[in-house]
Amino acid sequence: MDHLYTVFGNEITPSHRHFLEDGISDIVSSLSNNNMLAFSSNFDLLDESEDSSLLQCGVYVIDLNLPYHPYLVLKHPKSITLIEWDQQGTKLLIGDSLGKIEVWSMTEFLISGWNRLDQHCYDFGGDEIIAGIWFHSGNRIIIDYDKKDLDVPYQDKFIYNKIKASVLQFGGKHTEGYLCISSTGLVYAHLFAIDENNKNGLEFLNEFRSRIERIDIAYMRDGSFLVMTSNGNAFAPITCYIIRIMLDPKENYEKIKIKCEPFTSFHLNSALFTNPDHLNYVHIDHLKFIVRECPDAALVVASGTQGSIIECWELKEKPIEVHSVFKNLYPSKAEQIITEKRWEFVSNAISTAFVTSISTPNSLLFEINPLSSYIMVAFSDHSIKSYYRENFQPLNMIDLKAALKIDLSSNTSLGQYFTQEEIDEKITIVRDIQITWSSCALVAIDCYSQIHLFRLPPMIEPFGPMSINYAQLMLEYALISGNDIWDILINIKPQFVETLCDKVAESFIGHCHPQYLQQKWLDKVLQMKAALFRCTNLSLASCKSGDFYAMKMLNAISETIKRLIRAREYHENEGPAEKLSYLIQTKPTTDFQQFLNIDKILFKLDSKDFCVEATIQHSFQYLLQWVCDLSLYLLASIPQQCHQSQFRVPGSGLLFDIKSLNTIRELLVIIRFWSLIDANYVPTFNKIHENIDVISLMYKLFSKMVLQFDKIDESIIDECCVLPNQVMIHQMDLCLKSIGVASPALYSNSMPLILQYGIEPPSLKYSIKLPVIDGTFNIQGNQKMDVIRYISLGFASDRSNSFIRYCTRCNSVSLIKSVTRSPASRAWDQQWIKKCVCGGFWRVHCNKSHLKDIDEDLHYISL
Question: What region holds the Mediator complex subunit 16 C-terminal domain (predicted)?
Fold first, then answer.
């Protein structure tokens, strides 16, 4: 367990320290599958004044890649008791000590902007919210443990082990919504209706309402919820309930029906007077299901004067002995085995330090018996220990105070600005911990809302670093499940990146996957490989990262434009786009000139099938300009690549990928067609010789490369040498530079990184020197370029421009709103509205005073 970084807050006054360390106002947090952390704080994280107010709590969101940039969700007058991400990672369920439930959603999918969904809020009227959970969609993907190391198709390695959705609408479709429980056992269910006619219902957890102090909720396989509660007394039973939520068919599916049933319960083993020493543990502090999606085991933490005890219990099927009298009454069922579920004590662990928080995996990765999973426990002595579920033995331990006793003189992060005494004063009790969804990292939050992040060893290889095979398995699991790969990236050593990318590519290409998933997975594989190479501080790795980014965008542009082309008449077998692809990919046997001449390809196609409206041409003018600029850029790089063996530029890998070459040729044919329709909305070139046909020349050169793919012919090199003398060629920035923690700078700094809220760490800045193609011009300079639409954004200020969004993983920028309003341009923008090209979330740069104006600015942009 490696300590990766710590994010410190501002100085805390002594009076405030006492308030926070005593746990009067606790810290709660939630981690999404996108590695976004939402957490509560008792003061303003960006307020540098010494009299920071403790009267208002707040909820903040950070990307674990940029932990020093917290974004405010809301400020609240009372303590926050509940924070839960939804399964998509775009909404937050927030509850407080006064019984108010609020749902907050990202504004324009920006993690820096949030708005409250008033129609989905509820007020319990002073009854504290102690637990909440979102409805399950029913989709669950697990890894086949026996095939985890085999070279088999994804559909064999990963099992779509569906469970029943929490609430089903008419027709069997799952419904979005949430379930909340108050401290007196009041159950509230809220359903998000498509027609905005939201449905909700109330029910009591038990016939007799009583005080609940500790609680946890899990999903059952049949779609119900399993609830485990305690009144805080270690000698009272741990009471369990089953909650079922359904739309009542008798009411035409218009009303919610909540059914609460008692479930098998148990007493704490240490309270059964089996050991007199255990009688000191009198108070229940924590209840936790080991896996939320498979509640077959639970943890109970009790404390007393001698510290804490952690007990592990398992839910098992046990046969029931039936008396012979009843067997004789029903002889036909005499041999039938009757079972019931019972909680069974497994093991325990005792500590002299108090347990302050406990965390278990969010999802089930492997379905083996017994289930393999980490159990992470934080203690009051500043230590964090990991236990293995099978025997409940400690695996790893880290002490925060010892880990942060570093050589400050050699620390290249913000640690050089602190003394060791100042760091020791900032170290305090950990209040909450969270395991990432791939179980590759752990986040700890202390009572000052300071964040500490640790790398975890592989779950099935707990005593060593992440192996290449396990990294490949986790990356492929993230590819299929849709989880973010950031926590996997920080565990991969740079020297393994090349081998790992090759193994992922071989596994993907070497098997036949369903056609409807092929393109979706291809885009994700390219995105994943680009992210891996971006984390390596080598010029060659940056070039390869640019290759995969260019391939991804080229495929996206091609697929979008092909969807716009419609035949005049219905063709069962093929349309214009399919016919064009066939002509482009079919190599000639005799007439090679026909293959090289773009106009002869046009004669074989019906130009009317390629006619589109002028607004569509205008919408894609900048994208097609990028395709042409990329084509010229690649052709201009050929002479240096052929004569200098070590010369590579980002994107040049497309020259050695025949699929990419054919995609460029298809787009050049479409551009040629559109230029015949309206020359005003096609790419333009700064020609040095007016009589040159740039489109025709590029098509001919790429066609020659397809014909002689094994080796570039000298005639191609000669023509490419004179190309910069015929037309102006722009330099292109195809290298999306990584920012934040998951970047090449991570491996050039001593660990742990010392960071601070609101301060950009100079230690995470780095530079990569890339070669320049002879004869090209840098016309962009330091201007910002929209990574989605390829239009110049000028010299926009990072800190004051709320019209521009920035990626949380790379240096990409983009306009929040499109400059064009056509349906075609909106369809293109929708592909990137949630995430950047690299897979990172969008944010808006802003300081604290600027936060208030974001909503107004976004509204102004939309006008």
Answer: 800-843
